[in-house]
Amino acid sequence: MTQVTAAKEISSIEEYSDSSIHASRRKMPLMFALKRLGDILVSAITLILLSPVFFFIAIRIKHESPGPVFFRGDRMGCREKRFQILKFRTMYEEYQDNPGSPITIKDDPRVTPFGKYLRQTKLNELPQFWNVLKGEMSIVGPRPEDYNIAKNWPEEIKKEILSIKPGITSPAAVLYRDEESLLQGAGFMDDYLKTILPNKIRLDQLYVRNTNPFTDLDVISMTIVTLLPRLRKTSVEQHWLFSGLFYYFFRHIFTWFLIDTAVSAFAVGLSGVVWRLSAVINIGWKNYLVMGVTIAVLVSLTNLLLGLNRVRWDSASPVYVIDLAVSVGVAMSVVYAITRFWITDPWLPFSLIWLIGITTLIGLVLVRFQDRLITGMANRWLLLRGAKSAFAERVLIVGAGNLAEMTIWLLQRSAYAKIFGIVGMVDDDTRKHRMEAYGVRVLGTTADIPTLIEKYQIGLVFFSMAKPTDQDRERIAKICEQEGARMVVIPDLVRVLEQSIQKITTQESQ
Asked: How do beta strands 460-463 and 486-489 pair?
C-alpha cells in the first residue's frame, strides 16, 4: 500500500478533527511552562539514576550482535519539525541502514533475542528521556509517528496532533502496548493503516483536546501499571486514561473541597458578623476557620455519599438544591452535636448554627449554579433595558411548550449561552400570557411579535411550535422578514421521539 493510499485510509477519521475546537482553544502558557519544567527535572533525574541500567543494556546489545547501541529514527515532532528519536537498538546491524518496513510485527526476524526482551518490557524506549531533555519530546504526549507516514496525514490532523510535543507515552501507547502481536502475516501494513493507525490518531486527538496535568498523571500511572510483569496483560479501559483516578480526584473531589471550604469559611465569618449586630459573641478567628473547614469536610463527605461529585452543575436540574440542603443539614447537625456534647467552650447557640447553615447553602448553590444564574440575570436585564441593552444576540421564542423547553435548554445549557440572550416567549394560548415557563417569561401572543422585535431589537426568532400548521409557519416567517429578523425553525424532535416510543411499545405488545 502506498503512502497516498495510507492518507486516504486515515482521512476517514477527519470528522474527529473539529477545527473550531482546537483553533479556538486557549492553551495555558503557565501549564505548558510547568510541564516543560517537570519534563526537564524528571528526564534529568531519570537519566542519572538509570545510567547503570543504560550501561548494562549497552553491554548486552554489543555482546549479542555487532552494531551501534542506539537506533535513531526520523519522526515528525511539534509543528511538523523533523527530529531523530533515540532508542536502544533491537534489530540486527544489517537492518540498521535499510530497516524496510517502519512497523515491527510479531516474530519479526529483524529483531534480536535481547531486542525482543527490550521491546516487550519497553526498556528500548528509555533513551527517549534524552529527547525530552533536549526539548524535542515530552514525557506524555502523542506518540511520534514515522516521518514518511505522518507527512501524508490530512492537514487538519497534522495541525491538531502536532500542535504539542510528542511524548514517550500516551493513551494510544498504553492501549496499543502490544501492537506487534496484533500485526502478522503478509498484509500487516494494510491492517496497521486501516485499523490501528486511525484509532491511534483518534486517541491522540482526544489527548490534545483534553490535555491537562491530571490526565498526564493518569497516563503515567497506567503506563507504569501495564509495565509491571504480572499486570502487563491487564486490560485498560479508555476512560482510565482520560478521566482516571487523578483526574477524578482533583477535578471532582479536591477542587470542590477547596471551593466548599472557601464558601463555608466565608459563611461562618459572615454569619458571625451578622450575629454580632444583635448579640455579643467572640469565639476567635481560629475557631471560625476550624468550623469552616469542618463544615466543608462534612459537606464534601455527604456530597460523595449522595453522588453529587458526579453531577455536571452547568447542566444540573434545580432539584439538586434539595440534595445540597441535605448535605448542609447533615453537616450542621454534626456541628451542633459536637458543640453541644463535646466542645462546649466556646458554646455556639443553635440559632447561630442555623444561620451558618442557611448562609452556607446559599453559597453552595451560587457557586454551582452560577452559569444559570448569570444567564437568568442577563435575560432579566434584557427585559428591563429593552433596546438599550447591548448584551448578546436577542432571541424571541415562538411557542411555550415542550419544544420551547428544548430550545431554551439548547440556548442556555451549552456553548451558545454566552452568544444569545433570550428576551422571552410568545404563545397564542392566552392562559400562558404574562406567565413564566422554564425560567423565561411569556410576553404575549404571535400577534405581538412585531412590537416585541421593535422594542427589544430582536435579531433572531426561534420557531418552536409543536404541530404547527403551514399557515402559522408562513405567517411568522413573513413577519420576521418584514421586521428584519431571522427565523430558525426548530424541528419537532419531541413529537418524533414520542412516535418512536409509541412504535416500539406497539411492536412489543404484539
From this structure: parallel
Written as nine digits, the cell of 354 is 442555623
Does the model's pTM come out above 0.90? no
**Dihedral sign of CA atoms 432, 435, 439, 444 in order:** positive
* Residue 190 to residue 198: CA distance in whole angstroms: 12
Q: Classify residue 232 as left (phi > 0), alpha (psi -120 to 50) or beta.
A: alpha
Assign residue 67 a region (left: φ > 0; alpha: ψ between -120 and 50; beta: otherwise).
left
User: Tens digits of per-residue pLDDT, 304-363?
Assistant: 888 888 787 876 778 889 999 999 999 889 888 887 777 666 667 788 888 989 999 999
Q: Check if the beta carbon of residue 480 is closer than 8 Å to that of residue 458.
A: no
| Beta pairing, strands 393-398 & 460-463 | parallel
DSSP 106: T
pLDDT bucket at 381, cuts 50 / 70 / 90? low
- Give the Cα separation of 290 and 293 in Å (integer): 5
> Quick one: how far is CA 33 from the chain centroid?
21
β 167-169/440-444 pair status: unpaired
Q: How far apart are the first and last CA of the chain?
A: 52
Whose CA is closest to 444, among 473, 468, 424? Answer: 424
The partner residues of 88 in beta bridges, in order of sequence, read 70
DSSP E strand stretches across 387-439: 393-398, 420-426, 436-437
Strand pairing partners for 486?
460
What SS3 state is found at 139? strand
CB atoms within 10 A of CB 483: 16
Cβ–Cβ under 8 Å, residues 324 and 365: yes
H or E element in which residue 488 lies: strand 486-489
Give just the sign of the alpha carbon dihedral 251, 410, 417, 20: positive
* Angstrom distance (rounded) from CA 510 to CA 493: 26
Distance (Å, whole) CA 88 – CA 114: 11
DSSP 199-217: HHHHHHHHHHHT--HHHHH
Q: Which of 83-92, 175-184, 235-244 has the lowest mean pLDDT?
A: 175-184
Q: How far apart are CA 213 and CA 36, in angstroms?
A: 11
Walk me through the domains of the chain, giving residue ranges and CATH numbers.
Answer: 3-241 (no CATH), 247-368 (no CATH), 382-496 (3.40.50.720)
DSSP per position, 157-176: HHHHHTTS--EEE-HHHHHT
Distance, C-alpha 367 to centroid of its chain: 19
